[in-house]
Amino acid sequence: MAEIRVEHLRKEFGDFVAVQDSTFTVEDGSFLALLGPSGCGKTTTLRMIAGLELPTGGAIRLAGEDVTYRRASERDIAFVFQLFALYPHMNVRANIGFPLLAQGVPKAEIKRRVEETAKLLQIDHILDRPVSGLAGGDRQRVALGRAIVRRPKCFLMDEPLGTLDAEFREVMVRELRELHNRIHATTVYVTHDQIEAMAMADKIAVMNHGVVEQFGTPQEIYDRPASMYVADFIGSPPMNFIRFNGGLPRGARIARIGVAAIEMPELREEVAPGDLALGVRPEHVRLVDSSPLRGAIYGSEYLGTNQIVTVETEGGLVRARLPADHGYTIGEPVGLAFKSERLSLFEARSGRAIRSALHEGELRREARHG
Ligand code: ATP
To answer: What is the model's pTM?
Structure first.
């Protein structure tokens, strides 16, 4: 196992910059998700770590060693692709054991390691079956087995669950995380699916147009997004943005939106006058008759355990996650109230989050006391 360190990594394809100045560390034994929409540079980053693509600039260190210009075969990394190719004429046992056979490992040792791997993946009962008749989930497990059996320093996975249907994906997300908890191999996992990333990763790097916009734990990224892009990409429904115009001194605790004075975490920087956006997660919105921040019910989606109620306000649509036991009528006037200590404030033009008490870890202290 090994730490992966990426320093000022850059990749250009002609005039196009696919990855710009990425710097992050995947700690030894931890699980990193590279998350972002199609084309943001996730796969290119992964391919550079694997040694399948040469960086234009920057460095890659594996267990402290500079491997930037080393070939893939010299990096002791296992790559699991989305469209994994199993050898169709071989059975499960031979497919899993193939990398060891290619390395010249003695037969008895191959048998032992294949069986140990199959047990770990709970496919020991199908070891002697041909792979051609296997269901998607089992094929994926065989592909994983073939990667694990080598005991590489690191695993790199590029949307490995992309071809599975939703039900299998959920099962495999759980299994992959459980597998990681057992073998603790340093893992980099590419996905465009925020739910997968949140469920599996120790840390997430959220990418946008070749740039890592935020690197942090799932909770940090969800609770304290560094930008409107991150706040919008993570969460379903995403964070609400209530736009307003203003400037605020350092230390401010109130944002004035129309006639409403909204309490928020104390600002740790001065905000020049301009377009701002208050960010609030749907679960931190309540509907309260007495609030001066007014709106009208726009629609609702019943989700069984709760409902998403959309309210039209002067600052835009606001979604609230509310108990499902109350019905609302379209057009009904309502007041909005927010959980003040969980609000984010953004510069609307750049999308950057304004530093506040929320970002300085005070939220966690409050949570422990509360
Ligand atoms: P996806 O999930 O669609 O693969 P991604 O975030 O993994 O998205 P990359 O595959 O890393 O994105 O691609 C980033 C950008 O670089 C894309 O715009 C892509 O078209 C471009 N790109 C990737 N490989 C090459 C190449 N060999 N030549 C030219 N452009 C490339």
So the answer is: 0.88
